[in-house]
Design brief:
Blueprint: E1 8-10, H1 15-42, H2 47-57, H3 67-74, H4 78-90, E2 94-99, E3 102-110, E4 116-123, E5 127-129, H5 137-164, H6 172-184, H7 189-202, H8 212-218, E6 220-221, E7 224-225, H9 238-249, H10 260-276, H11 279-288, E8 301-304, E9 309-312
Antiparallel strand pairs: 1-5, 2-3, 3-4, 6-7, 8-9
Helix pairs in contact: 1-2, 2-4, 5-6, 5-7, 6-8, 9-10
Length: 314
């Protein structure tokens, strides 16, 4: 049997063929039931809809049950049952089609690996339908779209992370691959960026920032993120970090050991602090700013002298 196709056995009156078909049908229906019943159980559905779907699945490999049979077995009224069937159809869990004297019925359930398990009933004279796993073109297309969407999102997350990384030297593609690798293992972008901020805060002034790909490699144990590296680093706000930095160093840009990286780091910290700060905190930061500090243009620009501070608004 070709993969993705249902195999059909036609009973022509021969008892041996009919017996073989019955056994084949029973064996495969039992196997599929073992797969689909737990799947239905785990679906987030209203109780009446889940009950209806379970009862429908319990009729494998028999023909499509009548409305009377379903109302009797579910204990639901005909009106409620009709609402459940229509809702399941809208959710794409079931579909049915009437063609002449035949009734065709389909259950389609999502699987853990992103594919769909499709179970079909078909009724016609002397005909038995096997139950098999069908992988439709639509399912493949939807799976591909989902994968592409996830990958695009991860690449966007990487660009956001990379924009915050202070050292842009090195192989960006290698950094991207490592970022995506650990994201696929469940590490959140918030965790990665949070650890990056901790790395920036705790790096000694004399030490250069590692290349992005190198830092990501150091933060990974195989393909898993080392969650405990910065657990003991105090999660202080950007406002408090900026205040502490100004108190300790003044204007870092004027220090003899200052580099382009440390100046850029201070500039980003100032921007982040003013972004997070309340109006009162912004006023306080303006008062505390050392001479020559580069305050964001949309706030104020400060020029300080020994005993006089000139504030110029843009």
């Amino acid at each position: 049997m070709a993969r993705g196709c249902a195999r059909r056995i036609v009973a022509d009156g021969d008892r041996t063929k009919q017996a073989n078909a019955d056994y084949f049908n029973f064996r495969h229906a039992w196997g599929v039931n073992k797969m689909i019943l737990p799947t239905i159980r785990d679906l987030r559905l209203p109780p009446s809809e889940k009950l209806t779907l379970l009862i429908l699945a319990s009729h494998l490999p028999n023909v499509f049950p009548s409305i009377d049979t379903l109302t009797e077995e579910t204990g639901l009224s005909r009106a409620t049952l009709h609402r459940c069937l229509q809702s399941l159809k809208r959710r794409n869990y079931i579909a049915w089609e009437k063609t002449g004297r035949s009734s065709s019925y389909t259950i389609t359930l999502p699987m853990d690996d992103g594919r769909s398990l499709t179970v079909r009933h078909q009724k016609s004279h002397g005909e038995i339908t096997d139950v098999s796993q069908l992988y439709s073109k639509n399912t493949s297309k939807n799976t591909s779209k989902n994968i592409n969407s996830v990958n695009e999102k991860m690449h966007e997350e990487f660009e956001q992370f990379y924009s915050k990384y202070p050292n842009k030297k090195g192989d960006k593609n290698s950094a991207r691959q490592r970022f995506v690798k650990t994201r696929k293992k469940g590490t959140t972008p918030e965790k990665i960026i949070g650890d990056l901020q901790a790395y920036i805060r705790t790096k000694p002034e004399w030490q250069s920032f590692a290349h992005c790909a190198t830092w990501l490699k150091q933060m990974m144990d195989g393909d898993k993120w080392r969650n405990d590296v910065y657990d003991n680093v105090e999660k202080t706000s950007a406002v408090k970090r900026l205040q502490a930095q100004w108190l300790k160093y003044g204007n870092i840009g004027k220090q003899p050991w200052a580099t382009d990286q440390t100046r850029l780091q201070e500039e980003r910290l100032i921007q982040q602090a003013f972004y997070e700060a309340t109006d009162n905190e912004k006023t306080m930061l303006i008062d505390q700013a050392p001479e020559g500090a580069k305050i964001p243009g949309n706030v104020v620009q400060i020029k300080a002298k020994t005993k006089m501070r000139v504030v110029q608004c843009d």
